[in-house]
Write a structure and sequence with these properties.
By secondary structure, the protein is of the alpha/beta class. It has two domains: 238 residues, TIM Barrel; 93 residues, no CATH class. Helix content is 45%, strand content 12%. It has 14 helices and eleven strands. The strands form two sheets. The protein has an eight-stranded parallel β-sheet. Strands 7-11-10 form a three-stranded antiparallel β-sheet, with no helix packed on it. It is globular.
């Protein structure tokens, strides 16, 4: 006779409730800061993170974040109002620090009662951080290194996101695994959210146990049912493997290329050819250095919209993190969040089992 199989401990309601309580404790600082049920901050993605997706994330217990991008103040005010009409729960707004009307955009957020402003695309100035805080909102910044994390805290930032190179869109050179080891043991003054390549709840749990207050995810939400991205854009995510999400290549150090992670396609291949041709023209004296740099920088102008809204996934910029390989279906936002939480709970129960049985 064979011995009966032991019951799966992850299906025991009492064990699940106990593990959920432990997970809530690990996330407590993050949920208090965000005002959400879960310490899951949504990455702001241009053309994707608009009223529908942001409100769906907040309504499902996460924390949605509007991507302002290149919007003018009047347009941002409309989008905030439209989002508030779809959710009564808190959400944030992501502002690009290099926007020429940054001060006006901050004022729009404050006037609308936005609770959290995420400052991206550079190190924000002290006056901007102060204006946000004095207006009654929380300021969140990105720290790609420990020295910058400490500098932002001195400037008064309320929370930090440390984003690894596995993330989609504009990325730094260091992986989240390394950033977490460099930063989490040393930063205790403010909540720190981890980001980059995160697609499962058990992985998020491992960073919570290292001291993170929560996690930021973008790629998984980009292909969700509530995302307004074109069906061809979503299908590209479903087909992709992690290795398909690559960073843009720089051919010559004299002409810097800001690294952007997206799915390899005809556009990325043409970008290399465009750089090579521009370099040839510069060396032949047909272009000045400034003109050549602008020619390279303008190659991708409008390409993100072409991919997300128009569905041109061959020539457009299909920004995606390496977690894209874990996306196998188009799920509702609530299902994604519940799945992440369940995976973290399962991992906590299995940890306890290993501790019990050695």
């Amino acid at each position: 006779m064979t011995a009966p199989h032991a019951a799966d401990p992850t299906t025991d309601p009492a064990r699940r409730a106990e593990a959920r309580s432990r997970l809530d404790h690990l996330c407590a600082r993050g949920t208090r800061f965000l005002g959400s049920e879960y310490a899951l901050l949504a990455g702001a993605m241009s053309w994707v993170s608009e009223r529908n997706l942001v409100s769906a994330i907040s309504n499902a217990g996460g924390f949605g974040v509007l991507a302002c991008g290149a919007m003018e103040p009047e347009r941002l005010a409309e989008e905030i109002a439209a989002t508030q009409a779809l959710t009564s729960r808190p959400f944030g707004v992501n502002l690009i620090t290099m926007h020429p009307r940054l001060d006006d955009l901050v004022r729009v957020c404050l006037d609308a009662g936005v609770s959290h402003v995420v400052l991206a695309g550079g190190i924000p100035s002290g006056p901007v951080i102060r204006a946000i805080k004095e207006g009654g909102a929380k300021a969140i910044g990105f720290a790609p290194a420990l020295v910058l994390a400490k500098r932002l805290i001195r400037l008064g930032i309320d929370a930090l996101v440390i984003e690894g190179s596995e993330a989609g869109g504009h990325v730094g050179p260091v992986s989240l695994t390394v950033l977490a080891q460099e930063i989490l043991p040393h930063i205790h003054d403010v909540p720190v959210f981890v980001a980059g390549g995160l697609g499962r709840g058990d992985a998020i749990l491992s960073y919570l146990e290292l001291g993170a207050s929560g996690a930021q995810l973008g790629t998984r939400f980009a292909a969700s049912r509530e995302s307004i991205a074109h069906e061809r854009f979503k299908k590209a995510f479903l087909r992709a493997n992690a290795r398909d999400a690559v960073t843009s290549v720089q051919l010559d150090e004299r002409f810097p290329v800001i690294p952007v992670r997206g799915l390899s396609n005809a556009g990325t291949r043409r970008f290399l050819e465009h750089q090579a041709e521009t370099l040839r023209r510069f060396q032949a004296g047909e272009l000045t250095k400034e003109a050549a740099q602008l020619d390279i920088e303008h190659f991708w102008a409008g390409s993100l919209r072409r991919a997300v809204i128009e569905g041109d996934v061959e020539n457009g910029s299909v920004m995606a993190g390496q977690s894209v390989g874990m996306i196998t279906s188009e799920q509702p936002v609530s299902e994604i969040i519940n799945e992440l939480v369940d995976q973290a709970i399962d991992a906590l129960i299995r940890q306890e089992e290993r501790a019990r049985h050695g």
